[in-house]
Specification:
The chain has about 190 residues and is of the alpha/beta class. The chain has helices at about 15-20, 20-25, 30-35, 55-60, 75-85, 120-130, 160-170; strands at about 45-50, 65-70, 90-95, 105-115, 135-145, 175-180, 185-190. It is about 30% helix and about 25% strand. A seven-stranded mixed sheet has the order 3-2-1-4-5-7-6, with helices on both faces.
């Protein structure tokens, strides 16, 4: 597997407010995605590329433990502020994914919500995900796979779900499947 030559640059920190705005929460309610992930109070979920906490904070209201991981200290700071405001607890870790400072086999689900296309060291990151996932652990990669009526070049890039599935398979994940989520696909892999 070769790291994808067509990855995109990271989302600019200066636009972080767009990632967790009331409008985005209305247009794309986090709870709708969470309801498709088959998780509950006994689960530990890692929100990789958590940004300002758009998914991490709602996840913390559903699961036992949320580990919010982001490469950006500013994004982690915003996620922490949002969690405090919503009176939930999330663990925060700064990492690009190639090395994540948590125990081996300690996570039930790793969620990447419109982030996988930004991961630069995919092979190392998927290897690290495999390390931290429990034996029956899953990865859920949410990406835009179809354009909509009003696509104007803003928002996440449109990517091929098959390519993501192939990368997961090449990295040793099995039982790979796809769940439709509006214009997005949730690509699921099991360890």
């Amino acid at each position: 597997m070769v790291d994808s030559p067509h990855h995109h640059h990271r989302f600019p920190e200066k636009w972080a407010f767009l990632l967790n705005s009331p409008i985005r929460r209305w247009l794309d309610p986090p709870e709708k995605l969470i309801s498709k992930l088959e998780i509950g109070p006994r689960d530990t979920v890692m929100d990789f590329g958590c940004g300002p906490g758009f998914m991490a904070v709602p996840l913390a209201k559903v699961v036992g433990r949320v580990i919010a991981v982001d490469v950006s200290p500013l994004m982690l700071e915003r996620a922490e502020q949002y969690a405090r405001k919503q009176r939930v607890s999330i663990a925060l870790i700064q990492s690009d994914g190639s090395k994540i400072d948590i125990d081996t086999e300690s996570v039930d689900l790793i969620l990447l919500n419109h982030v996988f296309h930004e991961v630069e060291k995919r092979r190392a990151t998927l290897g690290e995900f495999s390390r931290v996932l429990k034996t029956s652990g899953r990865i859920a990669i949410v990406e835009r796979t179809r354009s909509g009526r009003f696509s104007v070049g803003f928002g996440p890039p449109i990517i091929d779900a098959r390519e993501v599935m192939d990368e997961l398979t090449d990295s040793g994940f099995k039982s790979v499947g796809v769940i439709s989520h509006g214009r997005d696909s949730i690509i699921i892999g099991e360890k």
